[in-house]
Amino acid sequence: MGEIVNLNRARKAKAKAAQETQAAENRVRFGLTKEEKRKRAAQDAAAKKHLDGHKLD
């Protein structure tokens, strides 16, 4: 006789696996490289410095 399978648990496991693969694809597609993150951080710092330089007391 075959092994008893909880269909609800199997369905949830299949859905979770599909979500994990979708998340991995999204990280590759929409994620930033280390260089892009560093460049964006530098731009944000420069913009903040520029705005703080024009602050009125």
TrEMBL record:
Biased composition (Basic and acidic residues): 26-57
UniProt-annotated stretches for the region Disordered: 1-57
InterPro entries associated with the record: DUF4169
The protein, known as: DUF4169 domain-containing protein
Biased composition range(s): Low complexity: 16-25
